[in-house]
Amino acid sequence: FLHLMPGISLDKKTDKNDQMYTTPKNAIELGADILIIGRSIILNGDILSKCKEYQRIGWENYTKKHLYF
């Protein structure tokens, strides 16, 4: 099974819609295999740069947790 986790953000904890966020590191520590990142990317001025940042941070944390595959 894959564990997909929405609500990922590097800097927010909550927003005006009562959305609760977690960091990529915390999500992977909780067992997430796939991070779902929405508003943290699309509301950013440079979407491509933000996507690459999340990709890098997510992969770094995923490989640290699953180092012994």
Question: Which helices and strands occur, and which strands form pairs?
Answer:
Layout: E1 4-5, H1 24-29, E2 34-35, H2 39-42, H3 47-65
Parallel strand pairs: 1-2
Counted beta strands: 2
Strand % is 5-15%
Give helix % range.
40-55%
Question: What is Rg?
Answer: 12 Å
* Low-confidence residue ranges: none
H/E series = EHEHH
Largest sheet: 2 strands, parallel
Q: Could you tell me the mean pLDDT?
A: 88
State the end-to-end distance. Answer: 16 Å
Comma- or semicolon-separated keywords:
69 residues; mainly alpha; two-stranded parallel ribbon
Summary of the model, kept short:
The protein has helices spanning 24-29, 39-42, 47-65, and strands at 4-5, 34-35. With 69 residues, the chain is mostly helical.
Could you describe the 3D structure shown?
It is a single chain. The longest helix has 19 residues, at 47-65. The protein is globular. It is mostly helical and 69 residues long. It is built from three helices and two strands, in the order βαβαα. The protein has a two-stranded parallel sheet with strand order 1-2.
